[in-house]
Amino acid sequence: GGVTGIDVVDEMLEASRKNFKIAEEENDWFSSKFVNLIKGDALNLPVADASIDVAAQNCLFNIFKTEDLKKADAEMYRVLKPHGRLVMSDPICEQPMNDELRNDDRLRALCLSGSIPLQEYIKTLTDAGFGTIEVRARKSYRVLSPNHYPTDELIYIESIEIAAIKDPMPEDGPCIFT
Known about the structure:
This protein is of the alpha/beta class. It has 5 helices and 7 strands; from the N terminus they run βαββαβαααβββ. It has helices at 10-26, 66-79, 99-102, 105-109, 118-127; strands at residues 3-7, 35-39, 52-58, 80-92, 132-144, 155-165, 175-177. The strands form 2 sheets. A 5-stranded mixed beta sheet has the order 3-4-6-5-7. It is globular. The protein starts with a strand and ends with a strand.
């Protein structure tokens, strides 16, 4: 019960349960009892306030549009204990994307068109109250080219790894480490 996994899709929860059984067979040290799976979503986490040490997400926040991203950040902040960490990996893009790309739900689900600039990504976290942001990695991810996507120019997408720490916001603004 030391780990809580949350997913909104029943099939994903069931796949996790099956994978845990395989993990038990292949690893003497692993037990399914370590993980508590709960149906829920990032906009309304079914977890008590200040009850989580470390929360993690991979390529999830980029699927949200601005208002939902703010809600998801606020929910993560709510469930973390003081000095808890939100560890994330998401795509970012410094170039503007046209509305056709931006509003394509399939491309959002593929972790492509929901990419936002790094400064905007960090701002959503600090607006939620995270006082320290650590940019741990930034690397090339994908290129959207006009011959495959509805764009007039090449769009460069990077993958970012960030830890947002729930510590007090300094008077002079957040601490951002790169």
